[in-house]
Amino acid sequence: MRGFIKGLLRRRRGAWEMLATILIALGVFMLMQPFWMVAFTYSFVVTLTGTVMFIIVSHFPE
Amino acid sequence: MSIKKPVEHIAKATPPSIARRVRGLSDRAIAWLFVGPSIVLLLAVNIFPLIWTINLSFTNFKANRLRDAEYIGLRNYERILTDADTWQSMQATAHFLFWTIFFQVLIGFALAYLINKKFKGNDLWTTIIVLPMMLSPAVVGNFWTFLYQPQIGLFNYVVQFFTGVEASSFSMIGSVTLAPWAIVIVDTWMWTPFVMLICLAGLRSIPDSIYEAAECDRASKWRQFWTLTVPMVLPFLMLAVLFRGIENFKMFDLVVQLTGGGPGSTTLLTSIDLKREAFEKWRTGYASAYAVILFVTVFGLASIYVKALNKVKER
Lengths: 62, 315
Hints:
The structure holds two protein chains of two kinds.
Chain A: H1 2-9, H2 13-32, H3 37-57
Helix pairs in contact in A: 1-2, 2-3
Chain B: H1 4-13, H2 16-23, H3 27-56, H4 75-81, H5 84-116, H6 122-134, H7 137-147, H8 154-163, H9 179-204, H10 208-216, H11 221-249, H12 253-258, H13 270-279, H14 284-314
């Protein structure tokens, strides 16, 4: 966990890609889950943030 | 001589100024000359419609009305993401997506594994198994509608034969609980051969020497399967899941032909819902916002999936 946070602070690609991946997966889950309407409402914002982040951080150094 | 004549004629017909100009071009310029038309086509067919759709998603534009569209900001997105019916169709899509991919991977891999074993009539069986994939979705939807008929449908009689449930007592496409499974069965029937072919390519790419070495080390068949076959076929399997996932997220024709989104809205997948908004209710701006939401979702999923695929390939 400490390595992951260090990676985020040092703008390392791996850590940021992991964060973006988690956001996309969370967003898609929120979009398609049958339990909570509020999660569905905010799903697009989460997915969009993750996707844009993924595109940006894929240009960061390894 | 007769072949040479037209060539000479063309050479003479080419204006010397053009010939000189082409001869004077750098390699990079010639490369751009070749790539240019493809880039222009890509921009015109893919990029421009995408940007236009994003633009329309912020308006109340209706394609059947001539008046100018007004910018309404994020209101379309707000309406979609607070609509219970849209939420329902997202859940129907999730059900369809999850179960079709699950069954297709399971059965497709099993079939590929069997077909990979050398036996008599191997090629004939491959051809027979692949047949459903070659049919048009409209045709498949139509004849499965007949197969699902409670009175005359073969499917109900097969179920009766195995389970003892009266054939005419249930309707696969008329029941709220069975209809989502009816479309899963048909899609699995149609597209499992595709997954099988990709898995078969993966299985055939594994050299026999690896298995021979494993047998020398006294590895059991079970162990060979889990430590050799599965890891080496995994990139192919993941590719198949990517293709089928994207395709099934956009699934339209087969389901429209089978159930038309019904009964009620139990099989109303997002693509069908989107089509209704765009071309039945003519809410073009709203439908554009809907399309953008689906696009971002598929794009995001495909991005993380391709990353995972690359990691598996590196191993």
